[in-house]
Amino acid sequence: MTTILLSGALSLVIAMLGTRPAITVLRMRKLGQQVRSDGPQAHLSKSGTPTMGGIIIIIASLIGYVLGHVLTGDPMTASGVLVLFLLTGLGLVGFIDDFLKLFMRRSLGLRSGAKLLGQAVVGAIFAVLAVRFPDSFDLTPASEHLSFLTDFGASIGPVLFVVWVIVMVTGTSNAVNFTDGLDGLACGPVIMVLAAYVIIGGWQYRNDCTRVLSFGCYDVRDPLDAAVVAAAVAGACFGFLWWNAPPAKIFMGDTGSLALGGALAGLAIVTRTELLLLLLGGLFVIITLSVVIQVGSYKLTGKRVFKMAPLQHHFELAGWTETTIVVRFWLIAGMFVGLGLWIFYRGGVAGIL
């Protein structure tokens, strides 16, 4: 528990103090967001706002995690390191995307195919490594089973497992990326889901089958370290949100949104709650579905369902203020997280595992 609190606090302080000089440097180098001319007109005033702030989130998360373990003497685990690998690897893909936007003056950055390929490669490497590194109980960071509150059904095999992880990683990282369209909109719900994984990791640790073999225990390799990772990343997001809250002084860019989506996917995989993530991240699912519906409708019928997708921009064009959208979407995200945690808790105490 000390490592969880310490890692989260260190990440928060590092991100909060480190973002201010990052804003200054990015402004001096004129590395500001290129706003699309076909988007909401209110966004034109945001043109030139420093972006790529996700670098700070990644660095703060890594330092907070490592220092938390060093200062408490707790060992780092394969599960924790692999989730941070996913965070960093997808952050690199996002950084390349942001780099092209800023230095090549291409408002859309990487082509969609190239971005998906980068996400898939990182996800595949994570999947291959996640079923290695067994502990003394022969538990690996991930298993070749689908999971909801824990693993269920027969093994899907190594090939399908890699494909499944790639789908999870690309889907979650792009979902957070779609959500990151208004000041603070993505950061708040990500913090809520990460907080849920701190609770889930702690609960699994207290009911770990390798420590207490009892009705409703969990076969998870490193549940407590998953909670440490979640706390470290949440702390970094808290520190960054201080500067990203409306009106934002800096944007996380694809560097941050892809990285955070990867962290959520990684935590779901190592805690054996893959399908539960769909509920915990319900806001991200809704926003992603709005994009799918909009694109599908336009291609099939030539008509648009929403004024603009993702969904937050539809409400902007409908006359909602940015702050109203952000707060209401945060409330929706909180309700999904609360429902997901209730189902997880009820499943645990009832032994539905």
Would you kindly provide a written description of the structure presented here, covering whatever features stand out?
The protein has twelve helices and two strands; from the N terminus they run H-H-H-H-E-E-H-H-H-H-H-H-H-H. The protein is mostly helical and 353 residues long. The chain has one domain (2-276). Helix 6 (187-206) packs parallel to helix 8.
Pick out its properties.
353 residues, mainly alpha, two-stranded antiparallel ribbon, 2 strands
Outline the secondary-structure elements:
Blueprint: H1 2-28, H2 54-72, H3 78-103, H4 112-130, E1 146-147, E2 151-152, H5 158-179, H6 187-206, H7 223-244, H8 253-270, H9 276-280, H10 282-301, H11 311-317, H12 322-349
Antiparallel strand pairs: 1-2
The main pleated sheet reads as: 2 strands, antiparallel
Cα distance spanning the termini: 25 Å
Tally of alpha and pi helices: 12
How are the strands of the largest sheet arranged? 1-2
Query: What are the segments in which pLDDT stays under 50 over at least 5 consecutive residues?
Result: none
Helix content: 55-70%
pLDDT averaged over residues: 90
CA radius of gyration: 20 Å
Which class best fits the helix and strand makeup? mainly alpha
Order of helices and strands: HHHHEEHHHHHHHH
Counted up, domains total 1
Q: What proportion strand?
A: under 5%
Shape, please?
globular
Question: How many strands in all?
Answer: 2
